Amino acid sequence: MSTTQTTLARETKLRAAESATTLDPATWDRILQTVRSAHPGLNRLWFDQLAPRSFSNGVIQIATLTPAQLSFCQSQCQQPFTEAAQAATGRLVAVSFLCDNLPTGGVFNEGDQPHPLNPDYMFEHFVTGPCNRLPQAACVAVAEQPGKAYNPLFIHGGVGLGKTHLLQAVCQKVLERQRNARILYLTCDSFINQFMNAIENNEMSQFRHRYRHVDVLVIDDIHFLAKRDRTQEEFFHTFNTLYQNHKQIILSADCPPGEIPELEERLVSRFNWGLVARIDKPCYETRVAILQKKARIRQLVLPDDVICYVAQKIESNTRELEGAITKLQGMGMLNGGKIDLELAKAALGETEAPEQQRITIQQIFDVVTKYYNVRPSDLQGKKRHKSTTFPRQVCMFLARRYTRYSLEELGGYFGGRDHTTVMHGIRSIEKDIRVDREVQNQVAQLEIQLSGR
Questions:
Q1: Would you call 132 exposed, middle or buried from its count of C-beta atoms within 10 A (0-12, 13-18, 19+)?
Q2: Per-residue pLDDT tens over the stretch 148-186
Q3: What does the alpha-carbon distance between residue 195 and residue 97 come to, in Å, rounded to a whole number?
Q4: What is the phi/psi pair of residue 114, to 5°?
Q5: What is the pTM of this model?
Q6: Which domains are present in the chain?
């Protein structure tokens, strides 16, 4: 390289360095405050951990602390932060997110795609009580010594009691301690579908390599192995390989191993080799603590009488409590930000006459079909296009939450579908609510409409 070229390259590098500046702390504070006030449902306590890294070429780079925070910000926060940055700077700028602590390993689901973890689902955010102390302690031990403490770990309990929170907390802690760890985390339904596809496409060697060369295998809803003889056979050999190589296996289900119908005895035996821990419904004191922590994560101020009322009113599970907070937050926004006991009672339906309190499945159909501009026949038909599948699953989710019908009975209302199809639809929406702000807002709006009927 000539002297002239060297000089030009040095000058170009200096100009680039001069153009890259740090963001003024006061401007960053304004950006955060704008996001929090304009998008209260998006706000998280850990936003305080975000840090502006550089400001160059019209792009503000913001560093996150964990990969889960990075995934959340990239999927949910890009537009809100960009709009806030433009308002704070008065310039046509954009925002990008990065993470300095990206692991060389990771958490993957089907097809080796990265599994989006919820940054709220960490041990620090999990409320312990008599109902869940054992599984929580076991998960902490497993995260600290995977493959050595409680292998396999089998957690069982009803819907919405915190199993998913604990599973994701383990994954995040393992990656924090072992940056090159490879974790496979998926539902039993996904495992079954991949197994069947591997058989059809003659790809069993690739399938076995994927599942038998991981550091941690996490399977949710393992009870769906019931009546699947060929899949049980394959999982038996996968389990043995991982166990013999001292790799951690974590399973969750809605019942203990011995109560899973038509599960091979040898699998029942192996599931009981480690620790089987049950999560029960939270007691009143635990429900109060859960509401306080969930509100704190969203930086939502709830009066004590509102927290006590909600804790008394909702006894079923943690997910119902979180749904109540989302609903209160949504109705509070419509009420000028004020959340009091009267609003809480209206949100949970107590102010209605007794004969009007119970929401019918017909009312749910009416609200959903009008909101998504579909016909009742679309919800009951066999079409699998997203324009009808998604509203159908939302309707299933709301019907399960607000009526007392069993999964089998709900299947009848949705065109004679099997109860497993209804369960899949419900859990699909539950997952979307956790990771997708738009879906969360849509469901909140539908619930507000139902509460006003």
A1: buried
A2: 889 999 999 887 888 999 999 999 999 988 888 999 998
A3: 36
A4: -60, 135
A5: 0.69
A6: 3-99 (3.30.300.180), 110-279 (3.40.50.300), 283-351 (1.10.8.60), 354-453 (1.10.1750.10)
